[in-house]
Amino acid sequence: MRATFENNWKLIQEDARKILSASENELYSFDLIHNLYDKAILQQASVIDSLSGLLASKLYSQEVPAQTLNKLFLDVLGNSSESQKVIYLDLAAIVERDPAADRKMINPLLFFKGFHALQLHRIAHWLWNKQEKAAAFFLQSRSSLVFSVDIHPAAKIGSGILIDHATGIVIGETAVVGNNVSMLHGVTLGGTGKHGGDRHPKIGDGVQIGAGAKILGNIKVGEGSKVAAESVVLTDVPAHTTVAGVPARVVGTPRTQNPGKTMEEPDYEI
After folding, report:
1. CATH code of the domain occupying 155-270
2. What is the DSSP letter of 99?
3. pLDDT tens profile 57-85
4. Contact 255, 261 (CB under 8 A)
């Protein structure tokens, strides 16, 4: 596994060199990106080092400097045995499912705020589980402000996740998201009122959630299901079904067993 991580990082660094070389004769690109690619990629020893610095540079404030955040992120990611594996699984998910990544991990690593917000949540979740709740809430607040993504630190999110575009994502405290899930901007995994306890959705593996969908309450969306854009889901969704509408109803069956992985085109009519 260590060899795989090292190979992935070497490929990302090689892509950085190729992009810099190709941009040398361009009017603006080289001057604009040279320092970023050099500092964030070529000077770093691993994806953890790179990601920690990138997140710190985006999230620092007058009260909390980038150096403090960078140290925190390095400590947390270094203390989690699965962190590097999960980072690469998330990067691979984006490369496989999002044409905008241009088949290169370097693009989401540097530029995709859905990826950045998700990795920041993973750090906040680790802190939350260590009872470092003030630090976790601080990171949630910064993520909401900088990325327009609001994920409660207690929410449980699997690996191989694509959060595409990401603006307006809201995921509540007791939500659970399985592996290989894809969701677009404006998705809400929310509650239905002010009552406490277990009050947020549970999303199965391989689910695809369209832009603007609202899934509300302690309900289950079964594995391999598909929620159409702008749907409002208020009841359980059976596995391997497509739901659409307000309120959502079953309108068909996804073409594949794992639409969250395949990001297939719409297969329904309202």
Report:
1. 2.160.10.10
2. G
3. 999 999 999 999 999 999 999 887 799 99
4. no
